[in-house]
Amino acid sequence: MKNWLVVVNPAAGGGKAEKAWPIIKGLLKKHNFRFDPVFTSRRLHAMLISRNKINEGYNKIIVVGGDGTMNEVINGVFAQQRIPTNEVMLGIITVGTGNDWGKMFNIPQDYEQAVITIKNQKTFVQDAGVVTYMRSGKNWQRYFINIAGMGFGAKVVARTNRMKERGKSSVGLYMTTLFTSLLSYRSIKAKIEIDGNAFKRKVFSMNIGIGKYNGGGMMQIPHAIADDGLYSITLIKKIGRLNVIANINKLYNGKITQHRKVESYTGKTINVDSPSLLQLETDGETLGHSPMEFQIIPRSLKVIANGISA
């Protein structure tokens, strides 16, 4: 059997992963893991590493990083052709900024407890998503494991990522950029089609997810079920700035879907188009814009979990 492949993103968490790696390495040795670490050095490197290493024979991967690193790794899982995607076992030691995917599966923030969780190898086979979108006049495709955000949420993520690139990283960074982005954002007219049923809305923000959490702990899709073969969708229609600010708490306590400006759906295939460009992010990674098409891939990823959050 091959050792565990450990994909380390030293830049995750604003460089936190690089500082934490000696501790994590020691904990893996303490708990008798046989592992081969590989460090990323650029954007999308984790995708190439995981694809190539699975083709070489690895089928157990530990991600040391955040949601973005995990996103790149699962894109590598889908890019390889040696084994079915749900035969690759994926675990994570979270050292990113938001760590939202891990919240769905109660992954401990404590490094040793995360290592013990991986050691126990209690797995959950979850759905994955794939989206086709536009960027620079071309069609692109991206797989995702948690949530795809459009509109205002995608703008906040883009601004947050720019701040991260400048060396700023904190749990409150998303909230800071949320308020600054509110000053200039305008809702966008869009045509939405869910499993063949089409309608038009002025979209403030739209989240399509497998998981519940994004934005550093916001529960924007509280009705999400990770293995039901369906996307869960939260659509926030045109809404005033003061209304957004007054209801921030509902983004965290899971009550956002009770707001009169919010609609909830489920579906397998979703198409989104708009006369003005509607921006897109997946798992906290800034991508492109409309038109977009989403397809669900049922029970296609085997992840190591510590239970499912309520």
Describe the SSE topology:
Layout: E1 4-8, H1 12-30, E2 35-39, H2 45-56, E3 60-65, H3 67-79, E4 89-94, H4 100-104, H5 111-120, E5 123-135, E6 138-144, E7 147-151, H6 152-165, H7 173-182, E8 188-194, E9 197-209, E10 213-214, E11 218-219, E12 231-237, H8 241-246, H9 248-253, E13 262-267, E14 269-273, E15 279-282, E16 285-304
Parallel strand pairs: 1-2, 1-3, 3-4, 4-16
Antiparallel strand pairs: 5-6, 5-16, 7-9, 7-15, 8-9, 8-14, 9-12, 10-11, 12-13, 14-16, 15-16
Helix pairs in contact: 2-3, 6-7
Fill in the keyword field for this structure.
310 residues, alpha+beta, Rossmann fold, Tumour Suppressor Smad4, six-stranded antiparallel beta barrel, two-stranded antiparallel ribbon, 9 helices, 16 strands, 31% helix
Report on this structure.
The chain is an alpha+beta fold. It has two domains: 4-121, Probable inorganic polyphosphate/atp-NAD kinase, domain 1 (Rossmann fold); 128-298, Tumour Suppressor Smad4 (Sandwich), CATH 2.60.200. It contains nine helices and 16 strands. Helix 2 packs across helix 3. The longest helix is centred in the N-terminal third of the chain and has 19 residues, at 12-30.
Provide a compact summary of the structure.
It is built from 9 helices and 16 strands. With 310 residues, it is α+β, with helices and mostly antiparallel strands.
